[in-house]
């Protein structure tokens, strides 16, 4: 499966999850959506960057992943501060959807990357022999 296909699946899955959650808690709909947006943005951007980096220069992937991780820390910290401090989004639905989205989307990303890294690319053998 290609990276863009994976991104679309994660996006559609997130929209469906938001719609279902919004039906059960319509008053928290906006907070739920805002909680899901940052994890979706971070994971999809990360997945696309890592996929592209692996295909172009697999030996530089660790460096790219470290830089991406630092960017994620800054982005997520800023986003949560903005949502909780400036916009005063309701805490419980925001944090619940934020946390659940991160866990599920990072699991999906990890499974995609596992498949990418074990695809037998001759440029980089990640298996321990």
Largest sheet: none
What is the ordering of alpha helices and beta strands?
HHHH
Specify the overall morphology.
flat
Helix content: over 70%
Detail the poorly predicted runs.
122-129
Number of domains: 1
Strand percent estimate: under 5%
Per DSSP, the total helix count is: 4
- Summed over residues and divided by their number, the pLDDT gives a mean of 91
Given the helix and strand composition, which structural class is it?
mainly alpha
- The value of Rg in angstroms is 17 Å
> What's the total number of strands?
0
Give an account of the 3D structure.
With 129 residues, the protein is mainly α. It has one domain (3-117). Helix content is 80%, strand content 0%. It has 4 helices and no strands. The protein has helices spanning 3-24, 29-56, 61-86, 91-117. The radius of gyration is 17 Å and the shape is flat. The two termini are 27 Å apart. The model is unreliable at 122-129 (pLDDT under 50).
Structure, briefly:
The chain has helices at residues 3-24, 29-56, 61-86, 91-117.
Kindly list the characteristics that best describe this protein.
mainly alpha, flat, 4 helices, single chain, 129 residues, disordered C terminus
